[in-house]
Amino acid sequence: MNTAFYLSKEAAPPIYQRYGRGGAGVQPRAFAEKNFPQWSLKELTYLLNQVYNDKNRSLLVFGEAGIGKSSVMKQFAKQAAAKEGREPKSLTDIQGADRETIIKDPSRYYIFLDLRAGELNPEQAQGIPDVEYGRKMGYLKFLPPDWVKLVSNPNFSGMILLDELNRSDKSILNSLLQLTLDRVVSGHKISDKVMVVAAANMGASFDLQQLDNAQLRRFKAGVLVLQPEEWAAYARKYGINKYMIDYAMSNPQENLFGRGKEVNEDIPINPASLEFASNAMNQVEADYHAHNEKGTPLPEGSSGNIYHDIRVALSGDVGDEYANKFLEWLEIVHAFDWAEIIQKAKSGEFKSTAKGKQFDTSKKFALTRYVTDEVLQRFEKARLHKDEAEKKKLSVMLYDELHTILQGVDKEQLSFILKSLAHHIKDSPPAGIDALQAAANWNNLIVPIATKAKASDPEFFSNLQKITAEMKKVK
């Protein structure tokens, strides 16, 4: 091809001129023999939106067990519910009379239906034979399971997740795959508002042999590959405990994608197990908050020591070894002192180049967590103070002290702290603060520091500029 005619973007349509960036390329294939691409979390979300808009397409996501495939689907379903003005529901959480009511009239809800293909029996996938009908008519028909009755209701809107697809029995698999090609299951046509997605584990105990090429062609298929930074951003957005995020990021190889060493068998450390552990820790913290603020009794069996109760709550999800190390790290976070940190920043102790004063790298994320929490508390105290003179005094003191800390850490640590602060102040502000006010709050904090840095330390100012520019690109 003669590329001389393609050197200018002026001939491209306006959207390509404005939003196009050369060299995007296709990611390396995870399974070359199957021609599967690799997808990031962001790319997977984009593809889910495509399937949502064109429900005749289906998506198949491969990935290591516990990497978070199902969690991404659930969160997307909640976003779809908000988009349609419906109440999000997971059918597995609905039982008894409520289930019957929703099956009769699902119009108020956006329903997430998780079908564990590897655990379904034929009756759950295909229905049961109506023997009485067969006797009368001379041929057999099947009574559909309740979920088929639900998804075939024209008022139904939601997502069907065919999970663990490559572990299902062949006959069940063929029945479920009708959903993706014909949008029919057990002889019933499903609602036009249903999006169908599938997930399959890969690894030592899972393979692709159960799905042949003809079946795979029914899907837009790829492999979810998770990067630690991307997971952290996702985890912050969807409420994973802040301490667990920072601990995982302090050593992702072990604390996010590792294995616990237990007496009987290995306990996997992955995004799924950390999500369960996070829920457990959030519950312990909520119990102690209620006890402290309202005098609510602690749950029966509680020790009265929050560190101990967190360790007990986490150990079943991540194992004793991980829980113990996490609690040691958490106590380090809570042992920091603001005045002492300012002094160490001034003396250069946090700089990796400081001779004989190198800061223990294992504590970097603990330091980030502490500084973030302390700054947020001081920033809110200043922002909400009713006395203008005192508000200005508290604000100037915070700017000066935070400037000292940020100036006294390495660029990597500076990036950690800025990203953490930006998330809590600008990207995910507290309830009652809109996006415009959140952006203003962030500017109120960072602009005075940048102004002071520009006048006193060009290198520090340059690092601030580079990091904030990178943060904008990610956004």
Can you characterise this structure?
- With 475 residues, the chain is α/β, with parallel strands linked by helices.
- The chain has three domains: 22-226, P-loop containing nucleotide triphosphate hydrolases (Rossmann fold); 228-335, no CATH class; 337-475.
- It is 55% helix and 12% strand.
- It has 21 helices and 13 strands.
- A seven-stranded parallel sheet has the order 1-11-2-10-7-4-3, with helices on both faces. It has a two-stranded antiparallel sheet with strand order 5-6. The chain has a two-stranded antiparallel ribbon with strand order 8-9.
- Strand 3 (87-90), helix 4 (96-104) and strand 4 (109-116) form a beta-alpha-beta unit.
- Helix 16 crosses helix 18.
- The longest helix is centred in the middle third of the chain and has 24 residues, at 271-294.
Name the descriptors:
disordered N terminus, two-stranded antiparallel sheet, 3 domains, elongated, 475 residues, single chain, 55% helix, alpha/beta, 21 helices
The Rg value, from CA coordinates, equals 27 Å
Secondary structure: number of strands: 13
Fraction of residues in H or I helices:
40-55%
Strands side by side in the biggest sheet: 1-11-2-10-7-4-3
Number of separate domains: 3
Proportion of beta-strand residues: 5-15%
If you consult CATH, what is the topology of the largest domain?
Rossmann fold
Secondary structure tally, helices: 21
